[in-house]
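Researcher: Quick sanity check before group meeting.
Model: Go ahead. Protein one:
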Amino acid sequence: MILKDIIDIIESAASLSTQAEWDNSGLQIGHRDAEIASVLLCTDVTEAVIDEAISRRCQLVLSHHPLLFHPLSTIQGLTFQERVAEKAIRHNIAIYSSHTPMDVYRRGISAQMAEQLGIQNYQPLTPEGYGVIGNLPAPLQLEELLCQVKERFRPAAIRYTRPTGEKISRVACGGGACAEFLETAISQGAEAFISSDFRHHEFLQADGRIMVLDIGHFESEQFVKQIFLSLLAEAPLQLYTAEADKSPVLAYS
């Protein structure tokens, strides 16, 4: 299959026209006319992931986070980005990333979070499409919600604030760093907001108005691989989910 045709399938759902100004989604390395038979799906393009792509003889790595957010001034193997770029070029491996376009895709990252918790009738949290909000199948007490989040997302740790009541029904989800939408979640009646990268003052900002659950950046976006699998399910490709795709953040307790 030609790389251009694979890109067309991805962008038919998550158009590059929807990416944030600061983002660098799209084809990072490779030629659009390259022949692709095997694809490795991941959240982050790390050295371990590119080594797995080499061992599996994949011609394409399809990721959520771009390898290159900023131009490389040199390629000397001094950073992981330089080493990955060099290996990919040497082994004729293309890299394509769908970051913020996959965030705002209606069945994208945040929708996958909602699906994991069985949230019903969820709708976009923001007009741009970041985040979703909906209702749990049944109200949950604090421990029940924490247990479900731990089971479905497998975070190294959950940082959270106290709930506003005895039970939680209405929940907002935001893949990646969505703390900026905290007030939006509150204004739409969310009793809990599951996302990542909350800072200390944002936990304070919750101020008893909403329960904040920070599950970790990677953990909130890990199901992007399932989205890629779904989009490419009928394509004549061998698809692999990267076993080396793991959160770089560990927790000690």
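Researcher: Fine. The other one?
Model: Protein two, sequence then structure:
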Amino acid sequence: MHKHILIVDDDDLMRRSLAFNLEQAGFRASSAGSAEAALSSARQNPPDLVLLDIGLPGMDGLDAIKHFKAQFHVPVIFVTARRRNLDEVLGLELGADDYITKPFDVDVLLAHIKAVLRRNEVVSPSLSTLIVGDLSIDPAAHTVKLAGKPVDLSPKEFSLLYSLAVDPGHVRSVDELLDTVWGAEYEGQPQVVYVHIRWLREKLEDDPIHPKLILTVRGVGYKLVGGD
């Protein structure tokens, strides 16, 4: 079955061009000129991935992504012509799975889409809940509980934790985690993993400075254990 890509952009020519190129590449494409129209469309015809322009009339992409993530748990790639927004977008941890700046080459966009879809399948709703010690990780609901209490994680934090929990006690290298959670375009940026590990520890550990759940294996990577 062809994956359904929803294009959200107020540029009519851009929408038509992207839809044509996506369909030529074997995807099913639909489009909307505003976030409001896109959300309405997605309720009728849920997408597998959303290409979301940041600069939209009415509700902008930064607001729209919250609705897409909350209602549809769907991967989102931000499309922007404004490079100065990228630090804000990524820093706010709004949950974008990737971003691409205009103008872009269609082949580059297709590579980003395929990479995000492949990574998203790592956390598949069909997979069962993982239990590691007091941690309960439900990929279908995209929820985490620690000793029965919900823990609020960003999409990237969730994917990172899930990647560690799939094989508890097994060390995952920083490069493995980068490739699985962020994709090849983040190769050589280990600080992305370090920062998200720190954020996870702040949310999950009694003492983040002396972690008992997410352990560092020096020179190798990280592993998730059940704690004491």
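Researcher: One line on it for the slide.
Model: Residues 67 and 81 are 22 Å apart (CA to CA).
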